[in-house]
Amino acid sequence: MAYSQQTAPFDYVIFGGTGDLTMRKLLPALYNQLRIGHVPEDARIIGTARSELSCDEYRERAREALEHFLPPAHKDAALIERFLKKVHYITLDGTKSDHNWDDLHALLEQSPADRIRVFYFSTAPQLFEAISENLHRFSFITPQSRVVLEKPIGTDSASARAINEGVSRFFKEEQIFRIDHYLGKETVQDIIALRFANPVFNAVWSAEHIQSIQITAAETVGVEGRAAYYDTSGALRDMIQNHLLQVLSLCAMEAPADLGADSVRDAKVKVLKALRPIPADKVAQETLRAQYVAGEMAGSKVPGYLEELGTESATETYAVMRAYVDTPRWKDVPFYIRTAKRSHKKVSEVVVTFKKTASSLFGKDGEHNRLVIRLQPDEGFGLALNIKNPSAADFSLQHGAMDGRFAPADGSLIPDSYERLMLDAVRGYPALFIRRDEVEAAWAWVEPTLQTWAANKVPMTHYPAGSYGPEEARKFIASTGDAWHEDMGA
Ligand code: BG6
Fold this sequence. Notes:
Elements: E1 10-15, H1 20-35, E2 44-49, H2 55-69, H3 77-85, E3 87-91, H4 101-109, E4 116-121, H5 128-137, E5 145-149, H6 157-168, E6 176-178, H7 186-196, H8 199-202, E7 210-218, H9 227-233, H10 235-252, H11 261-274, H12 283-286, E8 287-293, E9 295-297, E10 300-302, H13 305-309, E11 318-323, E12 335-340, E13 347-354, E14 370-376, E15 380-388, E16 397-405, H14 417-427, H15 436-454, E17 461-464, H16 472-478
Parallel strand pairs: 1-2, 1-4, 2-3, 4-5, 5-6, 7-12, 8-17
Antiparallel strand pairs: 7-13, 8-11, 9-10, 11-12, 13-14, 14-15, 15-16
Helix pairs in contact: 1-2, 1-14, 2-3, 5-6, 6-15, 10-11, 10-15, 11-15
Bound molecules: 6-O-phosphono-beta-D-glucopyranose.
């Protein structure tokens, strides 16, 4: 399918329209796509939620959200007004069949019958099936309709399967767009470009040359206002099962036949299915979990997770897993997957450590070559090389660095991941969404760890807020001969 940035006219119906994600990400994303000309003038955005609000009150909330969350360079008062005219609101409990469906019907009927409709479920996943059923009952699902499912898709394999089954009773798989916003990040897509468009990496991308790959997503924020959700989830479900396993799949996949949606997703799912299982009796050795305790960040004291929560909890805010991809390409190469809340700094990155080349030429081996793909912030990549020490008379080596940036050539900001994804759902372009088999394979791999942790068979470790993580994490990675990026020196 030819990819066109401009979209056909659409009606975007958001369930969970008053929620944090809608205000923080979804509305600003649509605004920005309007700003750069990808949203047609007669497109409409229809927020729905249970709150009794008038359309004007909803527009007011939307306006405040845009004022708050748009980057200053993108704020334009006249454009905000133009955008808000496209925004509508309907008080609706999507799970109840005897609710305000007539109003939604009346609004959607104003558009031509073949208008693209996107139903975005930004609600708890337990509601997805009931909302789908009502959309079906009242004949809202047309051939041009699609549904976007926000994460998390379940809390384990069984609930993920139930959600997928539930939604697929009413929508065909090609109409279902499961969001993983990491795939919408331009820099995550850069993993494909760096690997397959550059022989300098492609030729050495295997166990023969690579010692290990570490994938980190660390955040300085704690659980903010989301403790009720987060405490039932934890770092493994919140970040590893989805975002970080997607990044791992892109790093480890074989070259897809083409960049079509199914070729790429076939290649990724093969990786997920090739992950070496971590049975219950190996979980203590191959994983690590931790909670932050009180600490200091940017000179201010911050409370620990349990203090914020106000109750006891065995939910982890930090997690590490050591993964092996059992394919010939990755024979015994460890992939370290790590995520943290209240970390020393915000950083999402992939660090590829190459094996040292034994050489008698220089008296001693050089250092590891290292490729760091900076997903965010400071989007770009660094390559550490060995060069000759220019002030030494002999041929001793020193570290030399190359640095590249992913910034757009025209100086504009890197688009937020939701911008691309929300409009790709309109376009019906599924390449950057997760297929059902991927979600289920990812849950299958993490499940024994979740169960073993839930049974308290692996000790909870602790780290002060504002640190890089628990001390135990150093021993963990050292046990397979590696070190964390922040401990590597150069
Ligand atoms: C979300 C998680 O999926 O990703 C959040 O639920 C997390 O807990 C967020 O903060 C991180 O996204 P990003 O794009 O800031 O790395």
